[in-house]
Amino acid sequence: MNIIETKNISYHYPDGTPALHNVNFKVEEGSKVALLGANGAGKSTLFLHFNGIIKPSKGTIFVDGDEVKYDKKTLLKIRQKLGIVFQNPDDQLIAPTVKEDVAYGPLNIGLPNNEINERVKESLKSVGLEGVERKAPHQLSGGEKKKVAIAGILAMQPKIMVLDEPTAGLDPKGASQIMKLLYELNQKGITIVISTHDVDMVPLYASKVYIMSKGTIIKEGSPQEIFKDATTIRDANLRLPRIAHLMEILNKKNGLSSCKPPYPLTIGEARRRVLEQNLI
What we know:
The chain is built from eleven helices and ten strands. It is of the alpha/beta class.
């Protein structure tokens, strides 16, 4: 079942500038999907359509089988199912303390205090931030702020979590922690959708990949299907993952049979490829 589906959506900014053009995007329930594109490709704009923050100029969006409409009742229902984590957590963290911030969503849907407190506790535990409830968000590191933003979404007990550039601005350790957290949330049944231009992360994480360029989806498929098309990748102002690029260079320079396309995308795949060639 497709838990998110857009049908031919287009969007123009108020000044008439086109941002999206006939975008068709599908996410299966329980999957991990990456929307890959350079800066300015339209990834953030597409994501803001999913829970009705932006209304398309044309086309239709469905979330968990329900068409996204723009009355208060429908939007409240959609936003309880689908939460968006913005690229910059400072745009999302608005309360004086971490506890108040994570509690914001449950409080606004009228849950009783004891349930709100339990959801805050469990959400912060899920992201590994027990004990920071009384801290102000501005006292936290970038990675901790990102985790608090995720906790605020988890407190709503969503079916879908959409994250815009979840590792932006984080050091390698912080980025790895966030991606590990998202993997664990997916294992618990939450559908995860991310946007990114980090081509090295995508093969490790995503089961399906879309490439977006100039407001249009130009290719979709598994990571293997996506990255074997180096021409399309480069036309979208992206690059191959570093392992695949290394193998491409070795193939061009030395013609090694272990380095022929389709190129391995991770260190593990490259190692297996080389070992197989040595065993033949």
